[in-house]
Design goal:
The complex is a heterodimer of chains A (356) and B (304). With 356 residues, chain A is an alpha/beta fold. Helices cover 40% and strands 19% of the residues of chain A. Classes of the chains: A alpha/beta (356), B mainly alpha (304).
Amino acid sequence: MKKLALLAGTALALAVGAVSGASAADKLKACWVYTGPIGDFGYSYQHDQGRLAVEKELGDKVETAYVENVAEGPDAERVFERFAREGCGIVFGTSFGFMDPELKVAKKFPDVKFEHATGYKSAPNMGLYNARFYEGRYILGQIAAKESKKALAGYIVSFPIPEVVMGINAFMLGAQSINPDFKIKIVWVNSWFDPGKEADAAKALFDQGADIVVQHTDSTAAIQVAEERGLKGFGQSSDMIKFAPKAQMSAIVDDWGPHYIKSVKAVLDGTWKAGDVWEGIKDGTVHMADYANMSDETKKLAEETEAKIVGGWNPFTGPIADQDGKERYAAGVVAPDGDLLGMNWYVKGVDDKLPQ
Amino acid sequence: MLEAIILTIITAATPLLLAAIGELVAEKSGVLNLGVEGMMVMGAVAGFAVTVSTGSPLMGVVGGAVAGVLVSLIFAFVTLTLVANQVASGLALTLFGLGLSGLLGESFVGQPGIKLASLDIPGLTTLPVVGKIVFGQDILVYLSFAAVFGVAWFLNRTRAGLILRAVGDNHASAHALGYSVIGVRYLAVMFGGAMAGLGGAYMSIAYTPLWVENMTAGRGWIALALVVFASWMPWRAVIGAYLFGAVTVLQFHAQALGIGFPPQFLSMLPYLATVIVLVAISGNRRATLFNTPSSLGKSFVPDR
């Protein structure tokens, strides 16, 4: 049934995309593939804000098209292929799960340029871009450890992919830098987007004693539960302070606009090359929503850490040991980007068993 | 802790129960409406929009039901008056509802909603253990149970209910006896629409007071499955909805406790449990066949 719903969603999305993609041949056509609805007020919404920024910046030199609600996995191939056939000059695949289908289509259409977000496979005509969300998550970890009265946070996650595992680890490293005994409880909802389940997961975590909730899912449901219960949490992808004026301490906000503008401009100038960009707080791709609902001391600490990260410090700097106590990075060693992007182990202190 | 878990289960089960009980009536009249998801999501967007615009969640509840009815009327017109295929039309209705709700709801994305108030009776709601569970729910939770009792009574104890079942079991005979098959089915489909709309409104006003596209996330399909699970008996729909809700919520608790089971397996449990119970209760094939509306999904054209 779920599959059917997804299929239905894809079919619908195709129809929507077709409408928004009315074309004029002389312009550069830039196309986006989103995994969620642009109305999710989270991950896909932020990507679409980036698309709108491109339209605003480059005006009539480009036209844009998008397809939303595309299921991750082999099914996405059709969407990429259709975009390639329809004359898109550059296609952005915005979610990890599009990696293989996008790569397959990129190989089939060498003249079309592709960019894939948050993945690790590339081709001469398929570049990679990503945001260093983990920088923000490290700060969230520090805030949580400072503000939690129970030294326990609940962590709502979607799927066990490197991006998510990296986030959990960064959060834990941040928390442990304040309180080495800080604990998290992890709940996987196996969905990027199901507000009801996210709310249920948040309730379960609070019922089991957590007083702060962190999420790596897209809707505002979890932080609203925190607001209702008088507890704390963090927003995800966009600033959710309106939904939780007393509960949101900060949020990791994605701002893809600058990157998209840069890439589309490069295609227009003929200077585009398949790159591998990974930008963070310093570049403005990741920015932290206003620090609120916390003590002045915590706020100061968060700002200092943010400044340190902008200054070039990487939260994944050793010594870092994994769950079994094995040293992964010696003191002073910075984890290489490649390791982070393929991260499939937890740092010491995470009690969960990583689903494989 | 137990109280908190039960409260969460009630929230998870209510939208399913509301939508399922509506679809049950529609199917009992012989109409298979696969558009439950579409009607639900329209109820969700309308409920949210009316709540935010008027400042009254109660008006939102009414708005959700009205939206559900309006969308169901499209389906009724296409399948009953124009005699189109019910399965195809139902699927189309789901696509239509998902698309239209996204369009209508665009300006409401990112706006905080208002939560439907819960009952608060001094002395009763504060009772230990049962207080909040029995006397501290919102109106839609009570309505979902009232609907179960009402529908059970209506189908089994009233003349009108008998006619509705007759229409669903053998529309030709019902027609020969002088009953308006199309009229009865219109009403049943509209009831289904209203209940699905309420289920959707529950999502956007009570469960998670927010609007985002596709926020029903497949619950309409679960509700459809629950009708079969219930073998068209209202009280069994309660069991189905609460079983599904309970397993969903409990698996989150199991994860948070860190029992070390693969979460993918735990996520599968609600579906698995539902299938197992379905197999167990359909052991009695005759009873199941007896309850299945024989004209389900078949179009009817009055011959005179």
